[in-house]
Amino acid sequence: MQIILGITGGVAAYKSAELARLLANQGHRVRCILTEAGARFITPLTLTSLTGEPCYGANPDQGEWRANPSIEHIELARWADLVAVVPATANILGKAANGLASDLLSTVLLATRAPVLWAPAMNTGMWEHPAVQANLVRLRSFGHAVVDPGEGVLACGEEGSGKLAEVAAIAEAIQVHGTPKLMSLSGRRVLITAGPTREDLDPVRTLTNRSTGTMGIELARAFRDVGAQVQLVLGGELPAPWGVETIRVRSAQQMLEASEACWVGADGLVAAAAVADQRPESSASQKMKKVEGAESLVLVRTPDILARLCAARRPDQWVLGFAAESEKHLEHASEKLKKKGLDAVLVNDVQGGRAFGAQANTLTPITAQGPHPPLGPLAKDQLARAVVQWWAGHLAGRPA
Question: How many CA atoms does the CB half-sphere of 370 hold within 13 Å?
């Protein structure tokens, strides 16, 4: 993606350097535009060094006027796939909301047809002022996106709303709003189950598995990015992705109950969770102590979440399952496809513990027509996007 990063005059401007580097490391091309006030907090040399791209606007080394002048604001407006203003002051919000163009950044914002994203940062009183909130309403009416500030101790020493959102959250928002949407998934409600479940033996010990939930979280991000409305039922400890409605669960029973509640209103299901198949027949209320001699543990089956959801599906709902197999991968996955009535299953080889927590993985899709070419090996974020592209193509090819 080609990103214009506008930096205005706030103390949080130093975090824009971190954001620029993060976006560049993710493979995006980033060109920064500094306002005159922004250049008092961070230098063009810093931004150019981090991005490998020229820095525009209040740049003493280049300046807005060149020996061979061009219509720079139009060129930059056309170049951008997305324009992000981080941090966004009350001043720039007011300019853009009212169509004012008095410097390079405000002129690019007026000229561009690319998506625009704002990450405001300012004093609490300024943030809560009716004029600022009215300007945000108007910018949203233009189709612009806003990453609302968080709460905390501000540079002025006050505590409250107005603190720049976390850099990682802003980067995710940029990814969401800059990614082209897929017609077969845009606006669709997708339920995703992810992560391990844990069944308690006592207040200290649990039965679980080696899943981290990384793949399911990346799938939630990938479906979100192409326009789906994602609900994520998540086990484990990994942080939830930005902009995804997430329901935290611990046990298989909790995952079942949360999933059934969401499934009623969903268009499709991606069952990526690694559900513990057994739980203790009873759970001790206090930590169990060691005893002499052999010890036994009675296990009972946990609910089959995927089977229950498939049994309750409507004719217009689709289900995408996963299978982690250590042998006879295609054979066992094909059996799962038929037994549970899935539209597709993606199988991976977990022999020797591979795939769990690993950065790269391979998935082989299987439908009623048989196995499809493998996806991967790819890093899990890239693999998730490959899965979404493959599944969107599959849905687009299905008769209405």
Answer: 1
165, 212 Cβ separation under 8 angstroms: no
According to DSSP, the residues that pair with 118 across neighbouring strands are 85, 146
**CATH class for the region spanning 2-178:** alpha beta
Q: Same fold for the domain at 2-178 and the one at 189-397?
A: yes
What is the C-alpha separation between 379 and 382, in angstroms, rounded? 5
pLDDT one-digit tens code per residue, 125-157: 999 999 999 999 999 999 999 999 998 877 777
Burial of 359 (0-12, 13-18, 19+ CB in 10 A): exposed
SS3 track for 142-165? CCCEECCCEEEECCCCCEEEEECC
3-state DSSP percent of the chain in helix, strand and coil, to 5? 35, 25, 40
Q: Which two tokens stand for residue 380?
A: 């899990």
145: β partners? 117
Task: Report the CATH number of the 189-397 domain.
Answer: 3.40.50.10300
3-state SS record for 318-345? EEEEEEEECCCHHHHHHHHHHHHCCCEE
Active site residues: 156
Nearest to 33 by CA among 1, 67, 3, 69: 3
List Cα–Cα distances, 260 to 150, 264, 311, 344, in angstroms.
32, 7, 11, 20
Q: How many CA atoms lie within 13 A of 273 on its CB side?
A: 32
DSSP state of 165: P
- Tokens 């006027």 belong to 65
Q: What is the pLDDT of residues 333-381, one digit of tens each?
A: 888 899 989 999 999 876 655 555 556 788 999 999 999 999 988 999 9
**Structural domain boundaries in the chain:** 2-178, 189-397
